[in-house]
Amino acid sequence: MTGKAVRGPTYGELIRISERDGRWQQVRVDLTRHGVAVLYARLADWRPDRAAGPRLRALLGRDWARYLDLTHPDVRRRFAASRVLLKYAAGQVLDVSPDSVELGYGATGRPYLRGYDAVDISLSHTDDLLLVGLTTRGVIGVDAERADRPMYSSGLGKHVCTPHELDLLEGLDPAERDDALVRVWTLKEAYSKARGLGMQFRFTEFGFRPGSDPTGLDRPDGEPGTGTEWSFRTYVVDEDYIVSVAVGDAGFGGTDDTAASSMLDGGFVDMLTEVLGGDDPQDEEDPWDTW
């Protein structure tokens, strides 16, 4: 049941990207059709062959120094693989090389595409799952968590749930409570990421309805807290992970043409590529082999 959608409004299905020449056409189709594209990969699919090769340095760009500061090997691999996947995805959407995609970060660590705000992005990774969300409709947040996390049974609910959510969780069959809270947790994380607030947003101040379609946000007392400007969706990936998406529609409509060349001055794009160290494609080694 890979990438199966279980709840929510009409987005496309999750798109598995297992190699650099993967299903990018479907990403572009979803972004045009729905204004939203969500893709995922496994860490083994996007793991660098050489820990500090020149190709990886070029791909990470400004993130290279941060990568070198990470000391735990697994953390470094996830950091590198997730950023490279995100840059390949953005490059496909913008019709530029992944090397020329530059990431910036807001005050809470929220990533964005420097110099190009028509496409919003979000990133999540846990264990061996990498997750990327893109939208042309406004803002997006994505989050993933292992489906077997014992969140309710460990007592986490009272720290992250509204009183109304706790009542609903307690009304479920005991065997369903952990799964329901994992779903609620990922929805809250996705929404807070889309808002750019991270953990600064108290999770006990807004809620979702465990076990029902995430049609909107609730206030602590269970009353509706958002209108149609926000949409949510939850997926299950290979029975192992629960993935949630939150999209805030800015109300300006999406764009069918996301190519950077159609939105930016061509001279600026060339200059940006040169400054960021873009390689001559005729002389470049295979980036999938050497990064």
From TrEMBL:
Family membership: Belongs to the P-Pant transferase superfamily. Gsp/Sfp/HetI/AcpT family.
Keywords from the named record: Transferase
InterPro entries found in the cross-reference section: 4-PPantetheinyl_Trfase_dom, 4-PPantetheinyl_Trfase_dom_sf, P-Pant_transferase_sf
Domain 4'-phosphopantetheinyl transferase: 140-245
Name of the featured protein: 4'-phosphopantetheinyl transferase domain-containing protein
One Gene Ontology CC term in the entry: cytosol
Alphabetized GO MF terms: holo-[acyl-carrier-protein] synthase activity; magnesium ion binding
Pfam families: ACPS
One Gene Ontology term from the biological process aspect of the record: lysine biosynthetic process via aminoadipic acid
